[in-house]
Amino acid sequence: MSEAGGYDRRFVLWLSLAQLISWGSVFYTFALIMAPVERELGLSRAQSSLAFSLALFAEGLLAYPVGRWIDRGHERAVMTGGSLLLALALAAHSQVDGIASFYAVWFALGAGLAATLYTPVFAVVTRRFPRDFRRAIITMTFLGGLASTVFIPLSDRLIDAHGWRHALLVLAAVHLFVCAPLHAIVLRGAAVQAPVMSTRGPSPGALLRSPPYLLIAVFAVCMMALTTALPAHMITLLREAGLSERWVIALPASIGIVQVFGRLLLYFFEHRFDVHLANRIIPWLLPFSVLVLLVGAASPAAALLFVLLYGLGNGMITIVKGTAVAQYVSREHVAALNGAMGVPLAIARALAPLLLGLLWTPAAGYRWGLAILVVLGSVSAFALWQAQRRSLTRDTPAAGA
Predict the structure, then answer these.
(1) Closest CA to 254 of 234, 275, 280, 273
(2) Helices (H) and strands (E) in the chain, counts
(3) What is the pLDDT of residues 150-173, one digit of tens each?
(4) CA–CA gap between residue 299 and residue 66 (Å, rounded)
(5) Rounded to whole angstroms, how far apart are CA atoms 294 and 368?
(6) For residues 265-291, b (16+ Cβ closer than 10 Å) or e, as one string?
(7) Distances (CA, A) of 226 to 128, 218, 234, 245, 385
(8) Which positions ≥6 away from 112 have C-beta within 8 Å?
(9) Nearest-angstrom CA–CA distance, 302 and 244
(10) Which of 21, 111, 113, 154 is most deeply packed, by most CB within 10 A?
(11) Is 365 helix (H, G, I), strand (E, B) or coil?
(12) What is the CA radius of gyration of the chain?
């Protein structure tokens, strides 16, 4: 199945296609249907936004049980079932007639995302390709990163041509006739190929209390807060810094391109440098980028440096977060261990943009909020370095290597 001891490219590409559809049809489509749903159902912006928060909460709440099921070899049932749930929930969304049903379908969509997005699929490739899982994950994040590029214009055209209700029915059909069959066919033989659980190693409960895992959790939560706080305020922040409107629009739009470039760099050049050294360096790109923004946002040159550092860091940090538990804690229980971070990650993702807004003042603008993000990013990078030093796996170099 694998090529020269590495990962099976066709297997990873088919799963990456399902990732692109799942991210694009649900995660990125919400912003497009928000306004027409508000008009038709008579909702305020706060009421409609709560639906997405409910989806994030459901995703975090179910991440641990989903991970446990995958660790037990049920990846095919989990991901196929998740695609079917997304199809059903999108179809139900097309029929909502009030705020209660609107919230219910988004909670269901969050449950479907918990079974289909990066956390479960990263666990699948880690279990299937233990010697080359990192490269498989890089491939997936590169293709998954194109979801907004594909689905924002696609969903927008569907909504313009057929209305948001019929557009959701089309997206539901894509999950029913593309994603669900893909997962059912590609993930055949999961139970046969799943690693045999060792009875000698630490239990998942013991690993959850281990210093490396707790440090990785600190790393992941702090980094999630940083990377989700900034995007919602980026336009306002750059405008307040005094940049021209052309720069204000062009800079955030460039970040996605730089993110993809960062993942390409990892894909083509990772074999030439030490992975663990890269894992120590990459997280620092993000707090340094925010520091640049804090010190010199009014300068186009500083703003460009921010985009470069933030885009590269944000693009590559997904791979670092997706592989850290497998590299430094356990590959045997990777799905459950990553899933256990679901709720704190969901809380950080939901609260960080709100807290950054609350820290804004007319006199100081975003200065205090950015300073706190620099601290959070530094804590995150330091925590991952300490997790490396205390690693429970055997393939990690000693501290200082």
Answers:
(1) 234
(2) 18, 0
(3) 888 888 899 999 999 999 999 999
(4) 46
(5) 9
(6) ebeeebeeeebbeebeebbbbbbbbbb
(7) 32, 12, 12, 25, 18
(8) 26, 82, 83, 85, 86, 89
(9) 14
(10) 113
(11) strand
(12) 21
Which class for 214: exposed (0-12), middle (13-18), buried (19 or more C-beta within 10 A)? middle
User: Would you call 127 exposed, middle or buried from its count of C-beta atoms within 10 A (0-12, 13-18, 19+)?
Assistant: buried
> What global pTM score does this model have?
0.79
Tokens (6 digits) for 204: 């998942």
Report in angstroms the alpha-carbon separations of 180 from 30, 53, 105, 296. 21, 25, 19, 48
What is the spatial distance between Cα 374 and Cα 397, in angstroms, rounded to a whole number? 28
In the chain, % of residues over pLDDT 70: 94
Question: Residue 102 — pLDDT band, cuts 50, 70, 90?
Answer: very high
Whole-angstrom CA distances from 39 to 53, 93, 401 are 20, 15, 58
Tokens read off for 338: 């990553």
CA dist 166 → 87, 94, 155, 226 (Å): 13, 7, 11, 36
